[in-house]
């Protein structure tokens, strides 16, 4: 073991020869250390590290996973998995996020930088024991000290570097469904948004748009005029966002396949041949995204679509998902032959069945894949979690070459910490289940802790049929997620906002319009999180450290000014809420028609009608909202509304920029500081304008502790 000091609070411990994941660039200075802080190392059997947790200790982190904001009581396996059934027993989903923060008598963060399988047993096997197990002794582990969970997370975020920033239009509402199968279907969806007066910025193209599921091709029967179709859609106010999958179809004459073979850019198998497995296109090879040249080659393919006007992509199946390999299929079919004609006992029958149900994404297949990393042959199983990460990196680097200083939308299904530099993630195939709204709420803050800011779930649920209530309640939560997309699976009930009855359409119209009014705040908080290495979704107890707040899992702080308490239970007309201090409650239904109530610190049952979204403005804080529009490009926010709950004084920094370019990196953004101070009978308002701002008018609605509302207007 070697130890390196990275800064006074961060120490890196290197075991063996770790694979460079490119998640942390800081090298630090070597020091002598006998032991790693906090942990006991055990080298018997599997390499593992153990730590005794105290009773009150909360374990935060682990990003995209089952269970709560507090991860205690569970066992988790970091190994990116195509797992379409997110039931509570699942140990792995699509992402691998090896960062935790322990918050009790001792407070520290741990990042295990290892791209193979890592198991986090957080008091599952043994109540008070945290056990981190790795298959081998080649990894880096970072220990981060800090005075509280929030500061530890912020140190970690500064260590892994600045997050991806999408274009502003990607903060608008986005509509997706697997099975928008031709131009007419997509045009009809767009027209329905227009006809129903529901804002929308993007419509997604799932695998249906491709020719036989081949990446960078178009099905010319169903999308015969693709280039002009993109333009037509843009003129209507919609961007198209196509999917790109990891597997490349084996087909003579298909240029991506032929070039990949010729240049040796695909992953290989144990015999050195191109590794083959079936996914949507049938038998495929898999680009070796860990190979620099292959990564660049595939990344530049995006040009084909970018050059004709596509401004965003989503990457799927990049764990990589494998439906079956010849090996797996052969084994299963042999079992069938074995069993044929026999009088099977039930155990043999279950064994036969499991041969098929375990055929996809099998460890044995992953163990037979090889990468070429700078000329070295590397077994896939040891670096499995790098695959999706590098697929997104490939797209990001390719698109940067095409768009130069223009931002693009990009997100992935599989991920590893560090990938946040290149794009966002969506949380994959959830279900139209109420339980999955709650899971969505809990996951968001954990993902932020691991660096992922541009995130969201399939609103309304991907698999199984949604009813109107579920879509309403889910959308009411999703208006706060940076990636706000309704997506559903082929074969399920349609769940676009106009797919139910008129009443539902009316409610969803208001909800989605409100999202657009919130964009000034959402964007400002998102960008401040990016620039300041901070979070956007924040657990209540990161700000309020009382005993109750430490256990709240179903409410969140969104940015610095507000707390949300979403309704996630069927047929409920309200929910219990805990207010850690006095707050200003705004139940939003029609956002232009505002009523505020001061609610007292403590527990309460809150009535929340189906068309209402409760928002709590924190004491001495400010929420800015703007106007709504049919899409982000048409928003006019020269005039904003400032809603404030002021006991003494409140201050808000409102951030904005062009929403298009990377010029913010050169300091080209506006920051407006709004200060409100309560005087004896009035308020002093101070607005510091910044030279880049377009803002010219602020309408203030200030409520005091007694609930008295004062209105003021300020011209800038
Ligand atoms: O095996 O492209 O998670 O969003 O609609 C399913 C079809 C493949 C999985 C993605 C989902 C997408 C679907 N894909």
UniProtKB/TrEMBL annotation:
<dbReference type="Pfam" id="PF01055">
    <property type="entry name" value="Glyco_hydro_31_2nd"/>
</dbReference>
<dbReference type="InterPro" id="IPR048395">
    <property type="entry name" value="Glyco_hydro_31_C"/>
</dbReference>
<protein>
    <submittedName>
        <fullName>Alpha-glucosidase</fullName>
        <ecNumber>3.2.1.20</ecNumber>
    </submittedName>
</protein>
<feature type="domain" description="Glycosyl hydrolase family 31 C-terminal">
    <location>
        <begin position="539"/>
        <end position="623"/>
    </location>
</feature>
<dbReference type="InterPro" id="IPR011013">
    <property type="entry name" value="Gal_mutarotase_sf_dom"/>
</dbReference>
<dbReference type="InterPro" id="IPR000322">
    <property type="entry name" value="Glyco_hydro_31_TIM"/>
</dbReference>
<dbReference type="Pfam" id="PF21365">
    <property type="entry name" value="Glyco_hydro_31_3rd"/>
</dbReference>
<feature type="domain" description="Glycoside hydrolase family 31 N-terminal">
    <location>
        <begin position="43"/>
        <end position="121"/>
    </location>
</feature>
<dbReference type="InterPro" id="IPR025887">
    <property type="entry name" value="Glyco_hydro_31_N_dom"/>
</dbReference>
<dbReference type="GO" id="GO:0004558">
    <property type="term" value="F:alpha-1,4-glucosidase activity"/>
</dbReference>
<keyword id="KW-0378">Hydrolase</keyword>
<dbReference type="InterPro" id="IPR017853">
    <property type="entry name" value="GH"/>
</dbReference>
<dbReference type="InterPro" id="IPR033403">
    <property type="entry name" value="DUF5110"/>
</dbReference>
<keyword id="KW-0326">Glycosidase</keyword>
<feature type="domain" description="Glycoside hydrolase family 31 TIM barrel">
    <location>
        <begin position="164"/>
        <end position="524"/>
    </location>
</feature>
<dbReference type="InterPro" id="IPR030458">
    <property type="entry name" value="Glyco_hydro_31_AS"/>
</dbReference>
<feature type="domain" description="DUF5110">
    <location>
        <begin position="639"/>
        <end position="698"/>
    </location>
</feature>
<comment type="similarity">
    <text>Belongs to the glycosyl hydrolase 31 family.</text>
</comment>
<dbReference type="Pfam" id="PF13802">
    <property type="entry name" value="Gal_mutarotas_2"/>
</dbReference>
<dbReference type="Pfam" id="PF17137">
    <property type="entry name" value="DUF5110"/>
</dbReference>
